[in-house]
């Protein structure tokens, strides 16, 4: 790694010191199994995204990028797939799926952070590599989040605790953002844009679409909403950024959200491109992050 800093993952939960045993229920990893836990000690990058398939392909791609040499028959040095989530580890890179939306994501992140602490990981970077709708941004462009707003336009991840609303501030490491942006090359067939990300609880009404199963507003309301987002310097919409940036900040892990635009919401409701093009768009974010990881590992 280029940096000589040494930041162990240390979770701000004193109750964890007093558990006899602990089991990551949704990842299906027993934290008292030292053989499994020790496999994660070298993790420096955790890359997350919605689906298991995408995370498996991502791990294989990043494994090639960093010349990961698998031992035995497996293409990974650890992997799991269960009813909820899937994870694929290639050396210092662990790719994990999170499903749709912040409730699904936050369960996975709590357990992932506990695994990183138990494995005594240091200097970990978390990157969500996803898809999004652009706001005046054309498909294929990669948007790196400079902040995330709740559906109420606030810079928080809103959740609840003991029946009370909890607002966790979202925070972005601009060094990481700038370093990721700097990984674009002139010959790339895509642009990289920095901007705020609007994080919603729903894909249809939550993102101002007219084509959900019900809709109580007009096309003019939709236009005004999308214009408002643009004026707030929002450049993309997705469903996990606020929780990623707030939860990582809360536990002291640096994080970024890097998403490929698959539809410009000022032009259309849903993606209109072919499946092959959509796949190529998703790869743009992956290419950028792959270069960043190589650079950070001095490869
Ligand atoms: O992981 P991806 O990029 O697929 O996540 C985005 C945000 C929602 O989870 C989902 C909606 O289609 O796509
Ligand atoms: O428009 C979009 C595209 C991907 N993901 C979203 O949440 N919204």
From TrEMBL:
Binding site for phosphate: 84, 128-131
Binding-site list for substrate: 207, 209
Coiled coil: none
Pfam family, one: PNP_UDP_1
MF terms (GO), sorted A to Z: uridine phosphorylase activity
Domain of life where this protein originates: Eukaryota
InterPro entries in the cross-refs: Nucleoside_phosphorylase_d (IPR000845), Nucleoside_phosphorylase_sf (IPR035994), Uridine_phosphorylase_euk (IPR010059)
Annotated protein name in UniProt: Nucleoside phosphorylase domain-containing protein
